[in-house]
Amino acid sequence: MASADHPAADHPADAPGTGAALLDRLLSLRDRLVASPRFRHWAARFPLTRPVARRRARALFDLCAGFVYSQVLLACVRLKLFDILAEGPQTPEALAPRLDLPLDSTTTLLRAAAALRLAEARSGGRYGLGPLGAAMLGNDGLAAMVEHHGLLYADLADPVALLRAGRTRTGLGGFWAYAAAEQPAGLERGTVTAYTALMAASQPMVAAEVLGAYPVRRHRCILDIGGGNGTFLMQVAQRAPNLRLMLFDLPAVAEQARERFAAAGLSERATAVGGSFRSDPLPTGADLITLVRIVHDHDDATVLALFRAIAEALGPDGTLLIAEPMSGTAGAEPVGDAYFGLYLMAMGSGRPRTPAELEALLRQAGFGHVEMARTSTPLVASVLVARLGRTG
Ligand SMILES: CC(C)=CCC/C(C)=C/CC/C(C)=C/C=C/C(C)=C/C=C/C=C(C)/C=C/C=C(C)/C=C/C=C(C)/C=C/CC(C)(C)O
Ligand SMILES: C[S@@+](CC[C@H](N)C(=O)[O-])C[C@H]1O[C@@H](n2cnc3c(N)ncnc32)[C@H](O)[C@@H]1O
Q1: Domain check: are 96 and 162 in the same one?
Q2: Catalytic residue numbers?
Q3: Are residues 86 and 156 in the same domain?
Q4: Ligand nearest to the CA of 130
Q5: Which atom from ligand 2 is nearest to the alpha carbon of 253?
Q6: What's the mean pLDDT in 270-292?
Q7: Taking Cα atoms as reference points, which of 360, 365, 389 lies closest to residue 304?
Q8: pLDDT at 291 exceeding the cut of 90
Q9: CATH code at 176?
Q10: Amino acid 117: pLDDT
């Protein structure tokens, strides 16, 4: 199941012999060359190799400096710099009292933000929004994501220790309380509220991707498993006024969804059922089941059991839709494998999967037809659509 975003999704086995062996030899020759200080010295000066050498140096520098760039972004978010610059370009002198920073620090922050394209130098020594700062505006979910990274960075302070320990107790694991819980259904409201709020804040950008990729209107009843406080289903409700809405999540989370459905006047159309998909039966009656940012949280055995339970709950004509950032996404490789790979390791449960890995698990559970639905921003979410049986 290769696609434009996942060109290697099929993972064809390397043909034994010539092609792969020749490639290996060429790559080790490249590595030996690049590892030589003399070659690097020469390549940085020779006009034809200089642009490549500069790009590599910059890429390596960005890897060294990534945390510093992240902290510049965090400072901008905390100081609400983007909202302030959205009023119009301003001088450091005018901005310093508004940011409650000394003038010198204001200039340092503005120059850093401009270098990272979050802000932009304008005429008369003023600064305005940069293209990336403008993209942060009106995206409270992204700002909340930026803020919560403090937990991740603390867990990653010693990355080798984290990798050696494997699944261990961490700050992030405490935040995502279900990740380590033996009996997640017993989690109390106080424990699930912070992660539920973070997911709700960042859900609109995910819902926009999913609903742009798949026409939910063709269905009669949707069940959103792990649906949080119902933010996704509330977006669905707007797109498909005739669809019945069901949500399943841990009892303390489902309770919050029920309250929000009632407040939005959706109680007639929407129900929220509390339980754990690791131990409780799923609600039946839906012809579309969605797993939005769920599968990557769990290990293979849990995922396979969940897919099997879904196959049973859906019935033969039903559709399962999986939406989450996936491993191996073309153009977003570091998102799936570097960011989510280490994120989920720190969280203590799950792993990012390629579409082909997901498809293999789906097939084991009886889903014979699996295809990708194209999203506009696959780093936010890729979408897989699966149906039972062999035909589409
Ligand atoms: C108008 C003129 C003159 C020119 C226009 C030029 C042009 C075409 C500009 C483009 C403007 C544009 C449309 C920009 C769009 C920007 C977008 C869509 C940016 C999106 C960025 C999204 C980001 C950075 C997403 C970050 C997401 C993160 C960090 C998510 C983390 C999720 C976590 C930690 C989830 C945890 C859940 C768990 C536990 C794993 O299950
Ligand atoms: C990462 S959040 C995603 C929430 C929502 N789908 C979204 O994208 O915003 C994972 C959700 O799965 C729920 N969850 C985790 N383990 C569960 C289980 N065993 N049974 C039911 N829900 C579970 C959590 O309570 C949480 O709401």
Answers
A1: no
A2: 296
A3: no
A4: 1
A5: 25
A6: 97
A7: 365
A8: yes
A9: 3.40.50.150
A10: 98
Q: pLDDT value at position 390?
A: 53
Element (DSSP H or E) covering residue 274: strand 270-274
- Which residues lie with the beta carbon below 6 Å from any ligand 2 atom? 178, 184, 192, 196, 199, 203, 206, 226-228, 232, 249-250, 253, 276-278, 292-294, 297
Six token digits for residue 365? 């559970």
Picking from 306, 276, 294, 299, the residue whose alpha carbon sits closest to that of residue 349 is 299
The encoded tokens of residue 162 equal: 């984290």
Q: Single out the residue of 13, 1, 7 nearest to residue 369, CA to CA.
A: 1
For 311-351, write each residue's pLDDT tens digit.
999 988 899 999 999 999 998 999 999 999 999 999 999 99
Whose CA is closest to 366, among 321, 326, 290, 309? 309
Answer yes or no: pTM beyond 0.80: yes
74 lies in which domain range? 53-136
Judgement on whether residues 259 and 369 belong to the same structural domain of the protein: yes
Whether residues 187 and 325 share a domain: the answer is: yes
- Model confidence at 7: pLDDT above 90: no
Probe residue for ligand 2, chosen from 249, 253, 273, 349 as the CB with the greatest number of ligand atoms within 8 Å:
249
Residues with CB under 6 A from ligand 1: 135, 142, 145, 176, 293, 296-297, 343, 347, 377, 380
User: Any idea of the CA torsion for 139, 145, 146, 147, to the nearest 10 degrees?
Assistant: 110
Q: Judge if 201 and 342 occupy the same domain.
A: yes
Fill in the amino acid letter for 222: I
How far apart CA 290 and CA 287 sit, in angstroms, is: 10
Q: Which two tokens stand for residue 16?
A: 């034994």
Q: Is pLDDT above 80 for 8?
A: no
Domain boundary among 136, 170, 195: 136
ipTM: 0.95
CB atoms within 10 A of CB 174: 16
User: Residue 9's pLDDT band (boundaries 50, 70, 90)?
Assistant: very low
